[in-house]
Amino acid sequence: MGPVNDPLSGFCRDCLTLQRPAARRCHACGSPRLVRHDELYSLSLAHIDCDAFYAAVEKRDNPELRDKPLIIGGGKRGVVSTACYIARIHGVRSAMPMFKALEACPGAVVLKPNMEKYVRVGREIRQLMLELTPLVEPLSIDEAFLDLKGTEKLHRDPPARVLARFARRIEDEIGITISIGLSYCKFLAKVASDFEKPRGFSVIGEKEALSFLKDKPVTLIWGVGKAFAATLQADGIRLIGQLQGMEEAALMKAYGTMGQRLYRLSRGMDVRRVEPDGEMKSVSSETTFNTDLASADDLVPILRSLSEKVSRRLKAGGIAGRTVVLKLKTRDFKIKTRNRQLSDPTQLADRIFRTGLQLLEKELDGTKFRLIGIGVSDLADAGKADPPDLVDAQATKRAVAESAIDKLRNKFGNKAVETGYTFGKERREPPPEGAEG
Question: Which CATH number belongs to the domain containing residue 93 in this structure?
Answer without folding.
Answer: 3.30.70.270
